[in-house]
Q: What sequence folds into this?
């Protein structure tokens, strides 16, 4: 499994101040865990949360789950100390909130000399300026691996409303998807706040899947099963993918450049997508076997 094929169906935030949540996460079915020092932690609790989160990362026990520390902004009184502690702890990634310019990423990268080479940068995309600069941000550093949509901050800054169809943030989501895919980054969708509303979450996940997101950020363990299900290829997807690959290979062997399956044309681009789905299913199987 490479950084590109690693599943990120479910990316669970947990407050870095809550020892119980950090412990519980060791056995939760999340593909990735964001140990939060920013918005989920009160100012009074931030220094203790920093120690707790970094100790948890050093101690490990999270199996194949990807570990990300969300630090406070480098323009806050906690940001620099968070970054130094996170670099020393060596998570899979450090998530910078409120990224608005490419310089936010290059500035962070310059301060990460002490971090292990494998510690990547993730960027919270959640400000209006960040949306306008999404392409330049996506290209800012080879260390950057993933965009995380921060739709709560975005709705606040746009003075918009949360609506079921998410029309108020659709332009922003589209700009970030375009930028991420153009530069080979992963991208995960924003949170669904009503964490007991399973039907609403499912609809939001389906919309995110159809738009092209790799997965969804979550705030409660009750949301994991839906995200893991919706962002995985279905058995029908995989059966069709197998058929497309076999039909195309047979057509190629006969010297044809295209195949026809059930009255539909199958070209190399359809086969590339079929192979992507098969690789994604294999990566999910590998991850789940490693976690069980
Ligand atoms: C939303 C919550 C405050 C609810 O907490 P609580 O009432 O304690 O939930 P439960 O009693 O139902 O919890 C059941 C058990 O599950 C554990 N738990 C709960 N949440 C988590 C979690 N996120 N990770 C791991 N474990 C969790 C509890 O400890 C219970 O365990 P047990 O003791 O064994 O019964 C709470 O879920 C919460 O704080 N969620 C995270 C909120 C958060 O991180 N917010 C910040 C990120 S969202 C954001 O900032 C997005 C972005 O920046 C933007 O702008 O959009
Ligand atoms: Mg935010």
A:
């Amino acid at each position: 499994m490479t950084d590109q094929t690693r599943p990120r169906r479910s990316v669970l935030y947990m407050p870095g101040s809550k020892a119980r949540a950090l412990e519980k996460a060791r056995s939760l079915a999340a593909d990735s865990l964001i140990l939060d020092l920013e918005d989920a932690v009160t100012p009074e609790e931030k220094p203790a949360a920093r120690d707790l989160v970094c100790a948890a990362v050093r101690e490990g026990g999270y199996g194949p789950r990807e570990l990300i520390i969300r630090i406070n902004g480098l323009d806050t009184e906690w940001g620099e100390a968070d970054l130094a502690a996170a670099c020393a702890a060596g998570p899979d990634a450090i998530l910078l909130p409120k990224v608005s310019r490419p310089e936010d990423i290059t500035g962070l990268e310059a301060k990460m000399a002490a971090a292990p080479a494998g510690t990547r940068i993730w960027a919270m995309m959640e400000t209006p300026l960040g949306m306008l600069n999404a392409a330049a941000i996506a290209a800012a550093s080879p260390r950057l691996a993933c965009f995380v949509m921060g739709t709560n901050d975005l709705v606040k800054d746009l003075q918009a409303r949360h609506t079921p169809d998410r029309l108020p943030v659709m332009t922003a989501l589209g700009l970030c998807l375009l930028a991420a895919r153009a530069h080979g980054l992963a991208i995960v969708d924003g949170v669904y706040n009503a964490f007991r509303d399973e039907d609403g979450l499912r609809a939001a996940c389906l919309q995110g899947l159809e738009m092209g997101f790799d997965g969804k950020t979550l705030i409660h363990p009750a949301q994991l099963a839906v995200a893991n299900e919706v962002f995985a290829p279905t058995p029908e997807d995989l059966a069709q993918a197998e058929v497309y690959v076999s039909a195309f290979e047979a057509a190629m062997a006969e010297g044809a450049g295209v195949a026809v399956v059930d009255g539909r044309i199958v070209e190399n681009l359809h086969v590339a997508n079929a192979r992507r789905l098969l690789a994604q299913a294999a990566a999910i199987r590998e991850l789940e076997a490693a976690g069980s």
DSSP finds twelve helices and ten strands in the chain. The two ends are 17 Å apart (CA to CA).
